[in-house]
Structure formats: C-alpha cells, structure tokens
Design goal:
Helix content is 49%, strand content 17%. It is built from 18 helices and seven strands. A hairpin with a 5-residue loop joins strand 4 (181-193) and strand 5. This is Mutator family transposase.
C-alpha cells in the first residue's frame, strides 16, 4: 500500500465488525484483515531477502529477480501472496518457507485432531473448506497426518516402569490394503496398572494374526523397554499364551478370562439349553472359594457332562488358569477375572475406527489408533477407585516383589 493511498479505517472497522459478528474469517478470502496479512508477509519476506543479499552475495552477482505468486493456506483462510526471488535461487525465506503452502501450525493441529476423532480425509477437507475457506487435498492431509509417525515410533519405544501390578493383554482385528488386496491385521494391545493405580497403554503392535509366538516377541519387547516384573496378567484362552508369559516373566500369575471361556462354551451348547446351562455354571465362577467352585464344577459335569463333554472338558483342562482369581480378595478378583478392562478400551477405539473400511497401510492403522489412544488417555488422570486398599492387599500377597513407598 503506497503512502499516496488513503487508508479507509472506518470502512475497515465496519467490515471487520460485520464479519466478526457473523463468525466469518477476518483473514481469509474477502476478509477485512486479509490485505494487512498479505502486506505484512510480503514485507517480511522482502526484509529477509534484503538481509540475504549482503555484500558477498552482491559481489557474486546475485540480485533480486521478481516475485512468484503463491496461494497460502492459513487457519483463517487462503490468501494470495507474492514471494520475492533472487537470481541465484539461494534465498530461503523463513516466515513462509519454500514449497510451504500451509502457514499456521494451528491448522495442522486442527486437522490432526479431527483425524484422531475418526473423520475421513474427505470430511476433514469439507470441514476446512466450510470453516476456513481453504481447499486442502487428500495428499496434503495425508502428509500432515504423517507428521504423527515419528511420535508413534517414539511412543512405541518409550521406556516403561520396572513393575506393573496388573496387565491385560488382548487383540483387535482390522483390514489393511497390501499390494492391491485387502488382508486381515491383528493389533496387540497391552494395558497396565502401575503401583500408583494409574492405567497406561504399554504397547501396541501389528501382526497378521494372533498367536503365542508373536505374543512372545511382544512380551520380550516390554522387557527390553524396562519391565522387570508383572504381578498378574489377564489374558484370553489363546493356546500357548500363558506359556509365552512364563518364558519372559516366570513369576507372573496368569488369569484366563472367565467371560471368554463362557462365550466359547456357549458356542457348543444348544440354544434351548443355554439358559439352564448358564444357571448351573454361575455357581462355579461366582463361588466364594476355589474349593466351593470345584465342587460346583463337579456338579456341573454330573448334570451336563454326557450331553456336552467338550464344554466340560475345556473347563477342566483350563481350570488352573481360570481359577487363579479365587486366591485374591474381592477387590482384586473384580479386576482380574475378566479382560473387560481392556475390552472397554477397545470399544472406545472402535468408536473412532468404525467408519474406516480398509486402512491404506499398517502405519495408517497405527496412526489412528495412536491418536485416539492419546485422546482416551487424557481421562486417565486418577488412580483406580479404591486403589489404596487394592495395592495394600497386593503388597501383602507379593511382599518381596511389590514394596510400597510410605
């Protein structure tokens, strides 16, 4: 704006107030302050170029060489600016860098935030257009969300505490595109409770399928990241899982999920018998003591053993791991007899991922789960309810392994 131009402050104030009251962007297209932002950015880059063209540059023959137009996306809309050039192309402006088309980091944060809440690139693009009058392509959105990748890798390899009181291990299943075809992927999650009673997702791993061999590598990774001991591990009834845990953490007590066992049992019970069977099964896992539970299991076998031998045989075969929780007080029993704690976490993740069909890659899957996990963990600020009583009981049961700081 030249000195000869008369600046219309009254007109600017009127237009700005109208746009402010209507919620329109003041800096975006047709915004009242857009010319000021454009003038400021261009003046700043001119000053950067003047500083760059020092005596040495000029002696080498470098000079100003016109301007290049650029559309710059900001959190307040898209503006058109002209960036100055030099003849030798050695000028690298800092306020608006070369090939930079998105100015405000706040816009990137908004995009990553929306992506972390499960919005598709198409929906994000439409929202950005509506809110900021800015067009952003799917490729640009992907590049922005890819900035999360180093954070994901850093988080996956972060050091862990030496001891965790209770750890739940379970897997989720997704579809991922690979070489033009859609394949199944298994995401292994490990949720732990530390000595202060606070929840933390200790690890997140991707594999083609759930298996004891891969769980062994997961547990080894946890050990390498600093975990020396796990008091109690809660798992599903995957074959070889408990043995994998014993290999890495030999002193860990393993509790197989009762709910998983019940679900698997009902698959082999006729629908007409399920209600009666469950009525006879409840006294087994709701018993006061292990002795009483075993007596109830004998009675269950006497009534249903001939009709459903596979079901009863499964309870007997897995009884050692199913009955671990009976040795603990009720507060600890409620936490470990089922993997509901981590399944509840998985339900929150699925609320975010349910709109996705097949992910474009394993990392695309991990990016979204990582971001949604960060949102979920914001609520994990307090210890579990009545944790002081629970941890006191654990310290008595495991006196040599859990030492409380008083």
């Amino acid at each position: 704006m030249s000195n000869n131009d008369q600046f219309d402050y009254d007109g600017l104030k009127k237009k700005a107030l109208e746009q402010f009251r209507s919620g329109k962007s003041l800096f975006g297209k047709d915004g009242a302050f857009a010319p000021l932002l454009k003038e400021f950015l261009e003046a700043a880059m001119e000053a950067e170029l003047d500083e760059h063209l020092d005596d040495a540059q000029r002696d080498a023959g470098n000079r100003k060489n016109g301007r290049t137009p650029k559309r710059l996306k900001t959190a307040d809309g898209t503006i058109n600016i002209e960036t100055p050039r030099d003849r030798s192309s050695t000028f690298d402006p800092q306020i608006v860098k070369k090939r930079e088309t998105i100015l405000a980091e706040s816009l990137e944060h908004k995009i990553i935030g929306m992506y972390g809440h499960g919005m598709s690139f198409r929906d994000i693009s439409a929202h950005i257009k509506d809110m900021y009058d800015t067009d952003i392509s799917a490729a640009t959105l992907s590049a922005i969300t890819d900035k999360v990748i180093p954070l994901v890798k850093e988080w996956q390899n972060r050091p862990l505490e030496a001891i965790y009181c209770i750890v739940w291990l379970d897997a989720m299943y997704y579809k991922v595109k690979e070489d033009g075809r859609v394949i199944n992927r298994c995401v292994y999650n490990i949720l732990g409770i530390n000595a202060e009673g606070r929840k933390d997702l200790l690890g997140m791993y991707v594999s083609e399928s759930e298996g004891a061999n891969f769980w062994l590598s997961v547990l080894t990774n946890l050990q390498q990241r600093g975990i020396c001991d796990i008091l109690i591990a809660c798992i599903d009834n995957l074959k070889g899982f408990a043995e994998a845990i014993a290999t890495v953490f030999p002193h860990t007590e393993v509790q197989t999920c009762i709910v998983h066992q019940i679900r698997n049992s009902l698959k082999y019970v006729a629908s007409k018998d399920q209600k009666a069977f469950m009525a006879d099964l409840k006294p087994v896992y709701q018993a006061i003591s292990k002795d009483e539970a075993e007596q109830q299991l004998v009675e269950l076998e006497g009534k249903w053993g001939k009709k459903y031998p596979i079901v009863i045989e499964s309870w007997n075969r897995n009884w050692d791991k199913l009955s671990t929780f009976f040795k603990y007080p009720s507060a600890i029993r409620k936490l470990i007899y089922t993997t509901n704690t981590i399944e509840g976490f998985h339900r929150q993740i699925r609320k975010v991922t349910k709109t996705k069909g097949a992910f474009t890659s394993d990392m695309a899957l991990l990016k979204l789960i990582y971001l949604s996990t960060q949102n979920i963990q914001k609520k994990w600020t307090q210890p579990l309810q009545n944790w002081s009583i629970t941890v006191s009981q654990l310290s008595i049961i495991f006196p040599d392994r859990l030492k409380l700081k008083l």
